Amino acid sequence: MAAVSSASDTGDHRGRHPPERRLLILGGPRSGKTSSANTILGDEMFDAGTETTHSNVGQTEIYGRRVTVVDTPSWAIPADPEDDEEPNTDDNAGAESDSPARPPPSLDSEGPCMGAILCPPGPHAILLVVSISQPFGDRERKAAEEQLGALGGGTWRYCMVLFTGVDKLPKGVFIEEHISNTGEALQWLVERCGSRYHAFDNTLKDSEENTQVPELMEKVEELVTDNQGWYFEVNELILLEEEQARRALEEERMRMEEHARQREQMIGGPPRELRLLLLGWKGVGKSSVGNAILGRRFFESGQETELCLRRQALVCGRRVTIVDTPGWDWFSVSRTPKRIRQESQRGAALLRPGPHTLLLVLPVVSSLTARKRRTLLAHIETLFGDNACLHTMVLFSCGDWLGHTPIEEHILRGGRELQRLLEYCGNYYHVLDSKTPGKDRSVSLLLDRIEEMIRENGDRAFLPIQTEWLSEESSYSSDNTEPEDDCRGCQLQ
């Protein structure tokens, strides 16, 4: 729970109103938060044309009373699964778009607690900014509720809705009618704030007729009176959690920067393309792995792959080309149909001038017997030659089954056969959760690991295509690119 404190804590022991009013401004993307803060302050103290990533403090004097205003980063709007539009990062431009921007999470973004502690000992009023021209539905309601919840309990009694862009209302329509017509979500927000609300037109210039700021401050005084002079104060435990989260984000940001620097030094510049061939026996989840790496459903999972299929996407700053192949028989090479064996070779041929890495997909839930291991290696050496081991990496699929068990512990439990397979591959392995395509950070680590293998291979960065792989006409392969669209310009060659 958050704590509340009386006005007497400010030094006025006779119970009069304190000489200062502290306002905390919260709101979603493109709500007009920053413009509203500038309107209250009577000056362009904050940059309303860029995304706010850190809380900012401004002060002014209104009718002899010092007013402190804290502008905060936009709260995150939950993404609509059916909304494929690109996010707009201008969260403070006012009410100029039909739908709010949804900027990607930033390592530098702050929660509302930081804004609250920037106006010590705590805000008298929390202004929830809502744009007239932006939709306000269940997603926006949930975002507002989560933002207030992050501050702790007891926050709603200090909240007031501040509508922006009232100049966008049709002529003759008042704010009360807008609230009534917009829907239940907005009505819920206003009621949750004790039916306290105010409307701003941030385009109005300072003039004697412009009374919107004095009227807002009158409503703030009414709110303070209703709360008997008390102000909101964030619980120290919540502040500690906020600080720990900020430190963790900063450490993650520094780690990512160092990782990017090391990758550039290792490769000698940003990589242009990585060419990957998915291999393994039937039913191991090769297609799902391909989708997870590329971040989209390019390959049809859940059914047997009959033909090689090549797909490409930009992943973590790299152009990644993947070929999915039909599965082998786990018992022996001879039981794998000749057509399937040829299709595996043709899959490699689709990655001209050759694949950088053969990703041998192995589910973490399956046990590896001696026969399975020998059969896997026999397939690789028979189809791709003795040097294929230099370019082979074991990719464990279904990584979510591990839970909190480290992959190294799983390998130890897997027995000698699994360890011998990894030794064959130069101990190059990685684990992937293929259930969350495009959202698993381990995809970036996988690509880093592949680049490490390329560096270790030196002038043998990829497995060259052999003439016999092209000896028969490739009538089975499926691809959506022209034959001449190869990778010969790749820097990683």
Structural account:
By secondary structure, this protein is α/β, with parallel strands linked by helices. It is built from 13 helices and 15 strands. The protein has helices spanning 33-41, 112-117, 138-151, 175-182, 184-192, 212-226, 236-267, 286-294, 338-349, 370-384, 407-414, 416-424, 442-457, and strands spanning 3-5, 20-27, 56-62, 65-71, 125-131, 159-164, 197-200, 231-233, 273-279, 309-315, 318-324, 357-363, 392-397, 429-431, 478-479. The chain has a seven-stranded mixed β-sheet. A six-stranded mixed β-sheet has the order 3-4-2-5-6-7, sandwiched between helices. Strand 12 (357-363), helix 10 and strand 13 form a beta-alpha-beta unit. Helix 3 (138-151) runs parallel beside helix 5. The longest helix is centred in the middle third of the chain and has 32 residues, at 236-267. The two termini are 59 Å apart.
